Here is the input.
Amino acid sequence: MNVGRQKHKIRLKGTFERVTEGAETGSETLLNRIYTVLYLIEGQSEEVNTQHEVRQLETASKKKILHDSPIKCCDIFKALPDQQKHIRVVLTSGVAGVGKTFSVQKFCLDWAEGLENHDISLVIPLSFRELNLIKDEQYSLLELLRVFHPTLQEVPAEQLAGSKVLFIFDGLDESRLSLDFNNNEAVSDVTQKSSVNVLLTNLIQGKLLPSALVWITSRPAAANQIPPERVDRITEVRGFTDAQKEEYFRKRVSDEELSSRIISHIKTSRSLHIMCLIPVFCWITATVLDHMLTTDQRGELPKTLTDMYLHFLLVQTKRKKLKYAEGHETSPQELMEADREVVLKLGRLAFEQLEKGNIMFYQEDLERCGLDVAEASLYSGVCSEIFKRESVIFQKTVYCFVHLSVQEFLAAVYLFHCYTNRNTQVLKDFLGEGFKRKKTPFLQRFSGKKDSHGDSEHDNHPSLDVFLMKAMEKSLEIKNGHLDLFVRFLHGLSLESNQRLLGGLLGQTDNSPEIIQKAINNLKLMNSYEISPDRSINIFHCLTEINDHSVHQKIQEFLKSENRSEKNLFEIHCSALAYMLQMSEEVLDELDLEKYNTSEEGQRRLIPAVRNCRKARIINCALSETDCEVVASALKSNPSHLRELELSYNNLKDSAVECLCAGLQSPNCRLETLRLSGFNLSDRSCEALSSVLSSQSSSLRELDLSNSNLQDSGGKLISVGLKSLHCTLETLRSDQVQ
Here is the structure.
């Protein structure tokens, strides 16, 4: 095996010692030159999945690594000093582009160079995007390894079974396999043929090669495909800390003065600074700002996400064209016109696949959008840095955008082009038949007011403000928020200044100051009843992209005011305030919704701020199950700050109480006082509360159930929890519980 092992090490070293930060294969960089250590955090955020990954990044940006248990990538299979268990299966989650694959590559390179993990005989990396290509084929595990790693041809089955082998499965979120851990056949022999998904589940379960180590990486939304009981360690990659962002830019940009200017600029924009948690976004930022600061290009540096991605598109186009024009300077309009057709085709691919939730594409997906994979222009111009051929195996190529946010941006460019060019079918499919804005109970733009433009029986093509509103409505209907960044880009693209940068790519539309102001007013007046208050925060972000800062300024003034209770807050102000309180470095002592002069809907929109306060009073707010999910996520978050919570007189439904109790039973929950006075608690709700009282992880010291109209059966259920050996309750207020 030694000969095969050495050949394998040489091959891995050759594969991973150089990486491309963009998509162009000709611009490779030594991994060790740019690699900034990404620590893995023991455990995983348990927050509900009702937010776009950019929002998850914002949450992560507040978490201090010092408060967690950082693990170096090379040590993920080593137990911590206070752990006794053997770690065989590790699951690492993290948002798109945060550095999971780079961590895998660094692990493989260090092993291949003999720097780390000398006790591991073989490290075998496999990506789900490649495994997808053979999902319907039959292989033995030994055959599978030899197909993907030909250097292992000389390793016999018995040596593989008797060695310490690490299998790395990268990108579970890209998997198109059906992983069934309950009904699959058992496979215990490395020479036994079966389907790929059966081999993987048996390997993870330890039925196949029980001594083998397994490392799986995934985006958060897909991580639950692996049952928690099959995983020995859950880790999370949260991206760069502030210090690591600076370290990256200083490594990436050799000119010290220039790197300092870039670092200073990203600190002026919270959205850019947060996005720089992602290494790929740091590369995009460095690419754009390096170019703008070292050329004679005039104009403001990008401050919004739309600005940054627009300039990224232009910089890549300009760089490529200069190669073929021998330095001849051309205007942005000329550059974009040359790439117009292929950019729009890529935009169509991005849009159609975003709707389906796909981030990996195959030749048939490209051909459906009119992209000829053999055409040289597909890999010249802008495309070579934003769109890449990821791998070629079994005569089939895998394609993807350099980052999900690039796909979302190009998807927005395409849909905006369809709007300005009146592509009725695409708009109908996306926004609804006839573009009639539905008067749904949770979205009403103006109560009792007639819409004066763009939505009549005689004009099926909406005005720009209505188009943007309907796109916002569409995004809010999706619970996990996966169109949030897309709709932010749409609003940014509506500005005349940004359309001018694209040199006519989007076409002509009425985006006069009056229309833009109507779009701004629509966002400010939007009601989002029955939508998670977490989702409403994106309305505030869209205002930023469309260059309206009035709400932000209003909240800044509100926070400085000494008479806050006298200040009237509209719903949009409450969304902005909830966001700013969440993102504050200081934990709020108390959040009392009764102290804010706003509507019932405004109070709902403030609920996300419970994630960053010690005491919360949410009284008589008609809380829904959706609202309770946000409160539960505050109890589950790591760290969880809440110590006292009052939800009296809300008359929660059973499902809402159960959701809340799930948060109370989280290992991260530190709540000591819970007040549920004035509830009509059913037996089902009492049973859920009883399970909290008997939970080993519960930290409750005081529970108020006064005026809760408990039935005898409900009181008995609560009593069962009180008698548990794990119950930590010291004070109970209730007339019915004995």
Q: What stands out?
A: The first helix runs from residue 2 to 16.
